[in-house]
Amino acid sequence: MAVKPEELGQGELVVVSLRTHAKALIVPVVTLIATAAVVGAGIAVLPATWQPWGTYALVAVALIAVVAWVLLPLLRWATSTYTITDRRIITRRGILTRTGHDLPLRRITNVNYERSLTDRILGCGTLVFETAAGQPLRLPDVPDVERVHVAITELLFRDDEDRGE
């Protein structure tokens, strides 16, 4: 789903591959429904003298709103992925311009997760990876964040044991 096989190193195994939580789609879906309702009501109340140009203008404005507030957020969600392999954390984002970040597991010194009340209700959270080098890497809206946290912790402990620490 997130990473193509040719992007993996030889013998590298994907442990978890996921998209950000679908809560990012709540506002776009509500916006789509509201836009459809407004367009329907607008067409119904347009004076007959404004037809058909009033309808065209209303639909054009609605299409711009749908592209900006529905289609773009949907594409951002669909193109934002997190992949955890047995060697690294891989993030990929971007619709036209793709950006990626790879964090080797051996550089991670601490893993935390944060869950607001809304996150707990929806079953997601933010993973925070700390490294000795600098700024922590934050992965927001990770679905089932506790399960992912446990999987990463197991990988880190396995690596510590492999290194004899």
Structural class: alpha+beta
Order of helices and strands: EHHEEEEHEEH
Whole-number average pLDDT?
90
The tally of beta strands, per DSSP, is 7
Distance between the termini: 34 Å
Report the helical percentage.
40-55%
Task: Kindly estimate the percentage of residues that lie in beta strands according to DSSP.
Answer: 25-35%
Structure description:
The chain is an alpha+beta fold. The chain folds into 2 domains: 25-76; 85-163, no CATH class. The protein is 43% helix and 27% strand. It is built from 4 helices and 7 strands. It has helices at 26-45, 53-78, 117-122, 145-163, and strands spanning 14-19, 81-85, 88-93, 99-104, 108-114, 124-131, 137-143. The strands form 2 sheets. Strands 1-2-3-4 form a 4-stranded antiparallel sheet. Strand 6 (124-131) and strand 7 form a beta hairpin. Helix 1 packs antiparallel against helix 2 (53-78). The longest helix has 26 residues, at 53-78. The chain is elongated, with a radius of gyration of 22 Å. The mean pLDDT is 90.
Quick rundown:
With 165 residues, this protein is of the alpha+beta class. The chain has four helices and seven strands.
Topology:
Elements: E1 14-19, H1 26-45, H2 53-78, E2 81-85, E3 88-93, E4 99-104, E5 108-114, H3 117-122, E6 124-131, E7 137-143, H4 145-163
Antiparallel strand pairs: 1-2, 2-3, 3-4, 5-6, 6-7
